[in-house]
Automatic annotation (TrEMBL):
Chain's role: Specifically methylates the N3 position of the uracil ring of uridine 1498 (m3U1498) in 16S rRNA. Acts on the fully assembled 30S ribosomal subunit.
Group of enzyme by EC: transferase
Compartments where located: Cytoplasm
Entry annotated with the keyword Protein biosynthesis: no
Name this protein carries in UniProt: Ribosomal RNA small subunit methyltransferase E
InterPro entries in alphabetical order: Alpha/beta_knot_MTases, PUA-like_sf, RsmE, RsmE_MTase_dom, tRNA_m1G_MTases_N
Record field: catalytic activity: uridine(1498) in 16S rRNA + S-adenosyl-L-methionine = N(3)-methyluridine(1498) in 16S rRNA + S-adenosyl-L-homocysteine + H(+)
Sorted UniProt keywords: Cytoplasm, Methyltransferase, rRNA processing, S-adenosyl-L-methionine, Transferase
Family according to the record: Belongs to the RNA methyltransferase RsmE family.
Classification via NCBIfam families: PRK11713.1-4, RsmE family RNA methyltransferase
Domain Ribosomal RNA small subunit methyltransferase E methyltransferase intervals: 73-240
Catalytic activity, EC: 2.1.1.193
Length: 248
């Protein structure tokens, strides 16, 4: 069943005019006809079963006929703080971490980032990444679309973050550290804020490690292998799902 996000609050029994993007995809691409059903998430994260009422060149109207229950969201708020990766890896990271349940992705200009985002291109990149997140959230039937941000300064991010701050540190893996990630995730409660810092291809610099430790960042290993920058967030989110979500 198709799954779409409305841009307004809604209530059971209401008739809603769909925007052109949803209408085009559901009616033109998926060939929906009156009487067909799809899932709709309103602006407040409420999930409804909607029935297509009418579709014309001017508008497409759906009636919200049933409240639905969903457990598709991880019970904690997970922020990925991601050093700028090279090439188009940001697209892939946003898409896959959205499917895995991330709440927010904040890219930052790491000391050892090769990639650079500059000037007015930043807004265009964020707009594209936000669309990728929306598409991935629809595909994975989520109730929330993650927020995608960019911050030049890692210090600004960590000093404003309130919650448990973990650092995916490759040196911890090299040194054989195996238990800290499991221990830290085991201490997290439903509704908590959790963040993980992942470095770019070059890793996290000593100065950044010092900054993170000064702001209560806790270094954790992600298993005994050295992971690519685009793989590490997925490992972390899989661990969150296994230790927190599937045990709740």
């Amino acid at each position: 069943m198709q799954h779409y996000f409305l841009k307004q609050p809604a209530q059971l029994g209401a008739s809603v005019d769909l925007n052109s993007d949803i209408s085009r995809h559901w009616v033109k691409v998926m060939r929906a006809t009156p009487g067909d059903h799809a899932e709709f998430v309103d602006l407040n994260g409420n999930l409804f079963l909607g029935q297509l009422q009418t579709s014309t060149d001017e508008k497409t109207t759906v009636k919200l006929v049933e409240n639905l229950d969903s457990k598709s969201e991880i019970p904690v708020n997970v922020t990925l703080i991601m050093g700028l990766p090279k090439q188009d890896k940001a697209d892939w990271i946003v898409q896959k971490t959205t499917e895995m349940g991330v709440s927010e992705v904040i890219f930052f200009a790491a000391d050892w980032s090769v990639a650079q985002w500059k000037g007015n291109r930043i807004d265009k990149k964020l707009e594209r990444l936000q669309k990728i997140a929306a598409g991935a959230a629809e595909q994975s039937h989520r109730l929330k679309i993650p927020t995608i941000k960019y911050e030049k300064s890692l210090e600004n991010i960590v000093t404003s973050f309130s919650g448990r701050l973990l650092v995916a540190y490759e040196e911890a893996a090299k040194q054989g550290e195996k238990s800290e990630l499991r221990h830290q995730l085991g201490e997290v409660n439903s509704g908590d804020n959790l963040a993980v810092v992942v470095g770019p291809e070059g890793g996290i610099s000593p100065a950044e490690i010092q900054l993170l430790e000064n702001n209560n960042g806790i270094k954790v290993g992600l298993g005994p292998r050295i992971l690519r920058t685009e793989t590490a967030p997925l490992y972390f989110l899989a661990a969150v799902s296994t230790i927190i979500e599937l045990n709740s």
